[in-house]
Amino acid sequence: MAMSEAPIGIFDSGIGGVTTLDACRRLLFNEDFIYIADERFAPYGDKPEEFIVGRVFACARRLADMGAKAVVIACNTATNAGAGRLRTAFPLPVVGLEPAVKPAYEAYTGGRAVLPCTPATAASAKFRTLLSRFGGYNLTVLPLARLAGLIEKNIENPDVLEPYIREIFSPYPDLSQIILGCTHYVFLRGMLERIFGGRVKIFDGNDGAAKRLKLLLQARNLLSPRPSVGRVEFLT
Ligand code: DGL
Predict the structure, then answer these.
(1) What is the arithmetic mean of pLDDT over 158-178?
(2) Ligand 1 centre from 2 Cα, in Å?
(3) Ligand 1 atom closest to Cα of residue 117
(4) Active site amino acids
(5) How much is the pLDDT for 1?
(6) Could you report the per-residue pLDDT of 70-87, keeping only the tens digit for each?
(7) The CATH fold of domain 3-98+206-235
(8) Cβ(224) to ligand 1 under 6 A?
(9) Selecting from 3.40.50.1860, 3.40.250.10, 3.30.559.10, 3.30.420.40, what CATH number does the domain 101-203 have?
(10) pLDDT of residue 182
(11) Are 203 and 228 in contact (CB under 8 A)?
C-alpha cells in the first residue's frame, strides 16, 4: 500500500477530539482515520506536564505502529504540553490544536473575550507565549478543572450542564467572544449559541487544525488518492 493510502492517526484523552475528527473529515472526506480516546489516562487537564508528554508520545507511537501517515493531537492540553517535543523526536507530520486566539483577536470589535481551558493548558508555557503575542486584548483565561469530565459524563444530554455553563460566564456582562480552549467544549457550541444568541461570537481551533493537516499532507504528497469516503476506526 502506498503511504498516501495510510490512515491518519488522531487522539485525545477522550471524546473531545471527535469534534476535531469531524472538522478533518469535512475537509478530507476520503481519508481513513484511526482515533484513540486515551480514556484510561483521562483527564489530561489536571495532570503534571511530564505525565501529559508521556501520553503524547505513547499515543503517537501507537498510531505510528499501526501505520499512520500523520498524527493529529486533537487536544489543546496535550498539544501545549508535548507537541513541540514530539515534532523534534518523531518522523511523521504532527498537527496540534491551539485555542483560536488569533482568529478571535482579528475579529475582535470590543467587549471581553473569555477563554475557558483546562488548568494544564492555562499553566503551560506554550499557551502563555501564544497569549503574549496579543497585547491590549481584553481576554480572560478561565481554567476549569471539571468541565471536560462533565461533558464526557453527560455526552448523551449535555443540556443538563446549562445551569453550570451560565454560572461560569455570569461574571462577564461585557462578554463578546468565547474561545473554546479544549476540544471537549466544542460539544457545547450549540448550547452556547442558544444562550448568548448572536451577541457572543464563538471560536474553536478545529478548522484551523484540519486546514493545517491538509497543507502538511499536500506538501509531502500524502493526500489520499481514493475517490470514496474514508473509514474511521475508534480505539481506547
Ligand atoms: N480535550 C482536551 C483539550 O482539548 C482536554 C480534556 C482533558 O482534560 O483531558 O484540552
Answers:
(1) 97
(2) 33
(3) 10
(4) 75, 182
(5) 81
(6) 999 999 999 999 999 999
(7) Rossmann fold (3.40.50)
(8) no
(9) 3.40.50.1860
(10) 98
(11) no
